[in-house]
Amino acid sequence: MLGANIWLTSALTVTAIFSASAGYKAYSDLQEAKIIQEHYKIITDIKTIIAKQYNKSPQEITRDEIIAHLPTGGNWDKILLLNREDDSTIANKEFVNSDGQIVIDENDKLKLLALKSKLRDTFDTTNIAASNGKYNFDVGFNKSIKQKDKAIEQSIQKAIFYMSQKAVYVPDTTTVTINSTFLSDAIDNFAPLEDIYQDMGTYSNDAELIVKKKAFFQSLLKERLKENRNTTEARLYVLLKDLLWLVELLF
Question: Over 70: is that where the pLDDT of 158 sits?
Answer without folding.
Answer: yes
